[in-house]
């Protein structure tokens, strides 16, 4: 299965609990951290939920 790299570009400070939980679900918790995950509809949905906080590097 294909992989996708995601980088956190936004801070979780002053964000709602569900946005923070989504970041943790993506394996991100610090600024500029990069996480490599399987490219699945679930991961794509989490990325669409946080377009202002994450950037897709590959995929």
UniProtKB/TrEMBL annotation:
HAMAP family the record matches: Ribosomal_uL30_B
Domain Large ribosomal subunit protein uL30-like ferredoxin-like fold, first and last residues per copy: 4-54
Keyword check for Ribonucleoprotein: yes
Subunit structure of this chain's protein: Part of the 50S ribosomal subunit.
Keywords: Ribonucleoprotein, Ribosomal protein
Homology family: Belongs to the universal ribosomal protein uL30 family.
GO annotation terms (biological process): translation
Endpoints of the signal sequence: none
Species of the source: Sphingomonas naasensis
GO CC annotation: large ribosomal subunit
Any one Gene Ontology molecular-function term assigned to this protein's record: structural constituent of ribosome
Pfam family, one: Ribosomal_L30
InterPro entries the UniProt entry points to: Ribo_uL30_ferredoxin-like_sf (IPR036919), Ribosomal_uL30_bac-type (IPR005996), Ribosomal_uL30_ferredoxin-like (IPR016082)
NCBIfam families (alphabetical): rpmD_bact (TIGR01308)
Source domain of life: Bacteria
CDD domains found in the cross-reference section: Ribosomal_L30
Protein name as catalogued: Large ribosomal subunit protein uL30
Keyword Endoplasmic reticulum among record annotations: no
